[in-house]
Amino acid sequence: MKVAFVLSTCAKFGPFIVARDIVNFIYDKVDSIDVFYIKDSQTKLTFKANCIKVDLFKKTDFSQYDIVHSHGFLGDVYTYLNRGSIKGKAVTTLHQKIKPDYAMNYNLFIASTLDRLWRYCIKHNNAIVTLTKEMAQYYRSLIHHDVKYIYNGITPSISKTNVPEMSQLVLLKEKYLIMGISANLIYRKGIDVVIEALALPGAEGWALLILGGGAKKDELKKLVQKLGLEYRCVFLGNKINAIDYYKYFDIYMMSSRSEGFGLCVIEAASQKKPVVCNDLPVYRELFDDEEVVRFDLNNKPTLVTAINYAYLNRERLSINLYKKYLLLYTMEKMGRNYLNLYETLNEKFDYSYSK
Questions:
Q1: Is CATH 3.40.50.2000 the right assignment for the domain spanning 2-155+331-348?
Q2: pTM for the whole thing?
Q3: How far apart are CA 317 and CA 71, in angstroms?
Q4: Contact 255, 278 (CB under 8 A)
Q5: Are 118 and 125 in contact (CB under 8 A)?
Q6: What gap in Å lies between CA 143 and CA 221, rounded to an integer?
Q7: Within 10 A of 28 (CB to CB), how many other CB atoms are there?
Q8: Percent of the chain's residues with pLDDT above 90
């Protein structure tokens, strides 16, 4: 089997980390893999496969590939523009609910336009995959397609060297319990609510470590200053390997207003860290009440209650969450599920993308 991956970029964002992990898992289990990407980036993910930069409006001949698997908007557009050369099966993975998520990042007009265009580009694919059952049901009503779902999975890679801020973090842990967040600093991630909750009664013993950068970073820093939380809220910026910092967390905080999956949650699970998450449908599907602690993002006192409960019950929660990670959310589990999908498509169908 020959496989092509078509990515919007090779930058270190969730959808393309997932694509990288699929590629690296199946690399020695198929005849060949090539990765095509459209947008360049300052730092790139490392793939075992050959990576080829392409221009969005220049054609690529995909006729030699049995599977063409696209990720991201530009990846799906590029696959659509080259549909005439695809003789195998076209697969896409949708990593979020396009319209609601992009409405939070931009506005409703942009989100609605992008949603219609994106769905048009993928509606004739041989397989559309989402990250959860709930998301698959959402798209079935919009695309009228047999949308499948495959859970994300990871295999954590921990550096052996100490982090540069080790002495600062050790001192912080001597004074406070630590909540950790690793995220793109945008409105959708709900980090503003976590910062505001730090100023509430019952949260005095907690500090917050924030890994990542993004459009809302300066605004979040101003909020920290306004609330007088400079010594309890530390911005560490973008990190090549954010999971190296998880050992300093007493709990992992997932505060997103909307989320397709949340790789950081299963990273925390893999490190046996208790997780507190906003009560989203995705996390009701992925975890039960013996594995995570939930709160209502619109009710900040529930967040304070949740973090204190999670810490008091950290051993039980961590063990249960780690067991769930090993059962469902490893890179091997995800990779094998995708490989099974590719093999099923090749056996089941005898028509090409372009028909």
A1: yes
A2: 0.91
A3: 33
A4: yes
A5: no
A6: 41
A7: 8
A8: 89
Distance between CA atoms of residues 32 and 22, nearest Å: 13
> What is the Cα Rg of the chain in Å?
21
The residue ranges of DSSP E strands in 225-317, in sequence order, are: 233-237, 251-254, 275-278, 293-295
CA atoms within 13 A on the CB side of 206: 28
Output the six-digit token pair for 279: 């009560």
Domains 2-155+331-348 and 166-328 share a fold: yes
Distance of CA 170 to the CA centre of its chain: 29
What is the bridge-based pairing of β-strands 32-39 and 2-9?
A: parallel
Identify whether the C-beta of residue 318 lies closer than 8 Å to the C-beta of residue 247.
no
Q: Are 98 and 135 in contact (CB under 8 A)?
A: no
Residue type, 87: K
User: Cα separation of 132 and 150, whole Å?
Assistant: 6
Locate the domains of the chain by residue range: 2-155+331-348, 166-328
Residue with tokens 């393309």: 16
Query: 239 and 180 in contact (C-beta within 8 Å)?
Result: no
Distance from C-alpha of 160 to C-alpha of 347, rounded to nearest angstrom: 44
The C-alpha atoms of residue 18 and residue 287 are separated, in whole angstroms, by 20
* Inter-CA distances, 34 with 50, 62, 167, 240, 288, Å: 5, 10, 43, 24, 38
Across the range 167-185, mean pLDDT stands at 95
Residue type, 258: S
For domain 166-328, the question of CATH label 3.40.50.2000 is answered with yes
Burial 132-151 (b: 16+ CB within 10 A, else e): bbbbbebbeeebebebbbbb
* Nearest alpha-carbon partner for 207 in 240, 239, 231: 231
> Amino acid letter at 23?
V
pLDDT digits (tens, 9 = 90+) for 192-225: 999 999 999 999 999 999 999 999 999 999 999 9
Q: What is the chain's length?
A: 355
What are the backbone angles phi and psi of residue 206, rounded to the nearest 5°? -110, 145
